[in-house]
Write a structure and sequence with these properties.
seven-stranded antiparallel β-sheet; eight-stranded mixed β-sheet; 622 residues; mainly beta
Amino acid sequence: MRKVFFITILNCLLLATTFVNSQTVGINTENPNQLTDLDIQNMIDSQGDTIPRGIMIPRVTEIQRNAINVSNKSLANSLIVYNIDEDCYNYYMRVEGEWRSLCGSPGKAVFTITCGSVSVNGTYIANTETNGAHYVLLTVDVTKKGIWSIMATSNPINGYSFVGQGVFTSTGQQTVKLVAQGKPVAVRTDVFSLASSSGTTACTFSVSVKPQIAIYALHCASAIVNGTYKKNTPLTSLPSPQANTISISVGVSSAGFYEIKTPVTNGIWFEASDIFLATDVGTTKTVILQGKGTPTVNADFPIIVQSNSPERNNTCSITIPILFPPMTYAIIGNNDYSWDTNYRLNSFNSSKGAFSPTGIVKIQNFTQLWNTSTQATAANWLNSGNGGKYPDIVLYFAYGSAPTAALSTALASYVNKGGVLIYGSADSSQEQVRLLLNGIFGSGMYGYGTVNAAGTQTVTATGTWGLALRSASDQNVYLINTLPNVSIVNGPFGNLSGKYWGEDNQYSVFVTQLPPGSTQICSAYNPGDNKNLHPDYSIVWYNNSKNFLYFGDSVCARWDTSLNTDWFATIFNQASGLPKSKKFGYWATSTRGDQYVYNAALELNAVAWAIQRAATAGINPH
């Protein structure tokens, strides 16, 4: 043993020479650097060449490093080791109270993967390169900040994998993204295993690789929206017809994988995917898209159906019918010229086909809050509410219950609070119309005038927007403007563009200039009695932002048994409550029945518009 010891000492002396000079220790040098406590230099061989050697810092695993007692932080400060797990020098930093890496990074993070959190995104098609839409999201619990990397591979490999890396700058639960790389080869379900820089894990997830994409065409006209849709009510997957689905026919041109879906729109979306077989080619198949999510709005809205077919018709726009919440209406008036008549109210009967949960306008129920023909009572209820409640909609055709100044002021106040008003003027009531418009749209000068039987207008005053009084023959008809994007014209009870509305009053009140933001539905011009009136004068118009719709006359209503009677322009089917048209009034000749009029359809389109406005921007929250 003594012999071995002396041989070892001799070898050390031969390999290195230590010199002490002015408190500086030098190894292999007589002149150590005076700025150092220790200067280690390379040895020189007999040829004068440097012998390549280095200095070895203690090598430890991360567990061994963490076992070093660093409780005295001042004593441990700047302690250095080589971390063989990280393959990097680590030093202890007193200020932060932790080991730091010298590799220009925070070192390896420590984290665990939450297996059940894995979410696969994208559609994987055989022989199709993956892209940014193909990725995996998963949750990790970080206990130490630092560099991380995670990789997911399948066994056997199918041409693609998932990779993610980065730096955790904080601890706690975090979501990471693994991006797909490569191209799936075989059509099959691949099981991926996860491996991370923080150690092994038993987590797995599956990805289904689809065959090549089918070629097919959407038949948009065949689309049917099934189920009931209500704001804040989650869609259901219950069996049809209660299920919230869209069924659509498609023409198949080639076999393969199909995917038909919509973007998330107002809280909901639809999707379907499967494979068209070779036997499906040349046939028409029905695809059922399952609805998901919860509607966030109280009005019908379009949703775009998109397919993955690379050719043919692959996009459709489909309207989702929202079931409106329960609403109330109030009526001012009490005769056949008002809304307080069975001819009109029959349409609101939930057993009919117009307004009901399964009707043309889908509403849970539409009930009357109050009805009066006493102007003072109506004004009081509009100002203060009836039992503290305000109607969502006020229906006021004023013939037989002409407005007073107090009622006109109350109606304006109701509208300015957000109430919806469908208003039909009474005979010679231009002064009350002026008060109403003043209250809703602001004060100003208003024009008055008359029109004689020849259609010549005499205006006695002009102003910001004017009013005129038609005094000519009874039973005139007026062209409904072509307004495809206005639901009052092109609505659930028909597209009335280019059709006619008729009035039965010699003293209808029309407006010579509309308030800002208003839209004309019918010009006061016609080629019969009113052929000299300017086309900009309006006898039917509306203002969407103020929830206000104006008819220049209150027209009498009847059942369709009165189709051949001259005096009634607004006709309803008694059995269904739905609107009818009839020949009526004068247009270009003096012969009665020049045109078919669509008063009832225009009125019900107006009520449908009023319900939509009340649901989305009305006086009561819905």
